[in-house]
Amino acid sequence: MALVSEFLGQLTLSYGGEVEPTFPTVVAARDFDPAKDAARIETAIKTKGVDEQTITDILTRRKDYILLQFDLITALKGALSGSLEALMLGLMKSTAQYDASELKASMKGLGTDEETLIEIVCSRNNEELAEIKKVYKEMFKKELEKDVAGDTSGDFAKLLLALVQTKRDEPSNVVDYEKIDEDARCLYEAGVKRKGTDVATWISIMAQRSVPHLQKVFQRYKSYSPYDMKESIRKEVKGDLEKSFLTLVECFENRQLYFANRLSDAMKSKGAKEKVLTRIIVSRCEVDLMKIRTEFKKQHKRSLYQTIAEHTKGDYQKALLSLCGGDD
């Protein structure tokens, strides 16, 4: 594991074009035997008082848990409860299935969980969103776009739908300085320069341009505006639209730092926000949690592992620490 981490740590992150490298803390298990694992989990469930440790040991160290027998999900639901149950059931899904089910849950029933919607839709790249849409349709027999449109409104809905349509340009080897300057000027003229905000222009630029292009646009933007892009967003828009634009800009600048800060915020209060903690750890453990750990330590001067240990307890804590993959 240490060698794998070292190798992955030397890779640089890019968006689109070539395949984006990953920085997982959970990797494929050697000599994986789903039938054997399933039998061990079944025994752990039937043990008097439930053997949570064995369940945790197996499910937090397998990339291919999706191959475990389906009837285990029902058994786990009956054996576990609370945050540990949510965590373990999350691990029984692929990353795209988990994201799709979290999106569905955020739009279910009365009221919308905007925080989850914003976090997932605004932080996933084209490829991830395309896979989530495909899986969403398979799981719920509905289009993600239709559910988002039915559950949100106004400019907030327009931004989310523009992102879900996955029309973002792929990165190019050619740097178009003219286009960078034009986009930076358009963002300034659509916002800070005028009275009222031309949100449609902001949406089209932020939902369609490639990430490397936008990174350069935000740099150039400072030569037009007295404020940087994030300050401009805070001045121009409010509520869910503000949160969405800020999430986008933070993810364009450094996606792993965005998640590191979300994890830190979730553990700032006395009791950790377990829902947020579970969602980020489960959805990123096979993607980039190793790099999120690095950003966390750099930004917050203590390791993610130590912070989780301090703010959680019991079997839930053990499972999170196992998924975290070690201390820094």
TrEMBL record:
The organism's place on the tree of life at top rank: Eukaryota
Report if keyword Lipid metabolism is assigned.
no
Organism the protein comes from = Dicentrarchus labrax (European seabass)
> Which SMART domains does the UniProt record give?
ANX
This protein's record includes keyword Cell cycle: no
Alphabetized, the UniProt keywords read:
Annexin, Basement membrane, Calcium, Calcium/phospholipid-binding, Extracellular matrix, Phosphoprotein, Repeat, Secreted
Question: Under the GO molecular function aspect, what terms does this record hold?
Answer: calcium ion binding; calcium-dependent phospholipid binding; cytoskeletal protein binding; phosphatidylserine binding; phospholipase inhibitor activity
Main subcellular localization, coarse class?
secreted
Q: Which residues form a coiled coil?
A: none
Which family does the record assign? Belongs to the annexin family.
One GO cellular-component annotation of the UniProt record comes to:
plasma membrane
PANTHER family in alphabetical order: ANNEXIN (PTHR10502), ANNEXIN A2-RELATED (PTHR10502:SF18)
User: Which PROSITE patterns does its entry note?
Assistant: ANNEXIN_1, ANNEXIN_2
Domain comment from the record reads as follows: A pair of annexin repeats may form one binding site for calcium and phospholipid.
- Name it: Annexin
The record's subcellular location field reads:
Secreted, Extracellular space, Extracellular matrix, Basement membrane
The record's annotation in InterPro entries points to: Annexin, Annexin_repeat, Annexin_repeat_CS, Annexin_sf, ANX2
